[in-house]
């Protein structure tokens, strides 16, 4: 919610700040506000040329994901990841496509995408959230515990950490603890 607010302020300050629009849409996707994410992103299309080409592709891929156009998103993300692997957002978004679209569903590959995104940006907690689900789907609770241990000490009250602990407990079928 704080991130959505801050990105909204950044857009008010500079309406051509396309990357702030992208980040606002992601923050809103994960509970930071009730906005039309496609409308926010499409409003930034006239200024995305200010972004590096790989970011332009990720930006467009996100719009395609929001519109349910998985094939277009998939193609753009793979272009980005073939040309440069140093963009955690591309890995995160491709992992989302692998998770949410049956045609591309592959939990092991999703796990690899999310792990790579987190390796590139350890502070990318959105990836952490989905990676915990991935570990549970793959029945790899030891990997989930290792990931939890890595983040638990930083901020044990963080909602993402609390979710992770609940996810592990539920996967172990300890529903009372979850």
Which regions have little confidence, pLDDT < 50, spanning 5+ residues?
none
Helix content: over 70%
The total strand number stands at 0
Shape descriptor reads globular
* Strand composition percent: under 5%
Q: What is the ordering of alpha helices and beta strands?
A: HHHHHHHHHH
Overall pLDDT: 90
Count of helical regions: 10
User: How can the largest sheet be summarized?
Assistant: none
Straight-line distance between termini: 24 Å
Q: What can you tell me about this protein's structure?
A:
Helix content is 71%, strand content 0%. The protein is mainly α. Helix 4 packs antiparallel against helix 5, helix 8 (125-137) packs antiparallel against helix 9 (141-152) and helix 8 packs parallel to helix 10 (159-171). The longest helix has 15 residues, at 18-32. The radius of gyration is 17 Å and the shape is globular.
């Amino acid at each position: 919610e704080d991130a959505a607010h801050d990105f909204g302020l950044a857009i008010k300050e500079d309406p051509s700040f396309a990357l702030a629009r992208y980040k606002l849409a992601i923050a809103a996707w994960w509970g930071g506000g009730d906005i039309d994410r496609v409308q926010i992103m499409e409003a930034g299309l006239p200024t995305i040329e200010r972004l590096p080409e790989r970011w332009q592709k990720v930006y467009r891929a996100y719009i395609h994901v929001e519109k349910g156009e998985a094939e277009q998103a998939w193609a753009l993300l793979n272009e980005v990841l073939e040309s440069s692997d140093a963009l955690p957002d591309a890995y995160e978004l491709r992992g989302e496509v692998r998770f949410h679209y049956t045609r591309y569903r592959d939990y092991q590959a999703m796990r690899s995408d999310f792990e790579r995104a987190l390796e590139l940006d350890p502070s990318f907690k959105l990836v952490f959230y989905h990676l915990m689900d991935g570990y549970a789907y793959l029945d790899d609770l030891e990997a989930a515990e290792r990931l939890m241990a890595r983040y638990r000490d930083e901020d044990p009250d963080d909602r993402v950490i609390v979710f992770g602990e609940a996810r592990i407990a539920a996967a172990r079928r300890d529903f009372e603890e979850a």
